[in-house]
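Input/output pair, single chain:
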Amino acid sequence: MSGVVDARLAELGLTLPEVVPPLATYQPAVQSGVYVYTSGQLPMVEGKLPVTGKVGAEVTPEEAKDLARTCALNALAAVKSLVGDLDRVARVVKVVGFVASAPDFTGQPGVINGSSELLGEVLGDKGVHARSAVGVAVLPLDAPVEVEIQVELTEA
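Output:
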C-alpha cells in the first residue's frame, strides 16, 4: 500500500526518480540520529543535465526555477532511498540552494523557490523550512542549480 506522501506525489503527477549516483566520493544521503542530510542534488533527469550554464545568461530564471524543482525531487529520492518511506519525514528543516549565476544576476531566492514550492506541494506543512539561496560562480558539470536538504524523521 502506498504511503500518504507517495499518494500525494502521484496526485501531483510526479514520480521519484532513481537516486542520482555520486559524482565523487560521497553518499547521496546520510542519517545522523533523527536527521537525514542529503548531498547537493543536481537537476539530473535520467542521468543527464537537461540544461547547463549560468542563470541570467544561458539559462532563464524560469528554467532555473523548474530545475530547482527537479533538484528537490532528487533530494526526496535520496531521502527515501535511505529511510524507505517518505511518511517518516516529520519536517524539512533546512534547504540550501546554490545558483550558478551570471555576474549581474540577483534573483537566487526566486530560483530556489522552485525547490521550496515543490517540498510544500508534496509534504504540506512538513515541507516548510529554513533556507539559504546562494549565488556561485560555477557548479559541477556546469549545472545551473544545486540543492541540498535536511529533514527530521519521526521515530521508526
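The CA atoms of residues 28 and 39 lie 5 Å apart. The first strand starts at residue 29 and ends at 32.
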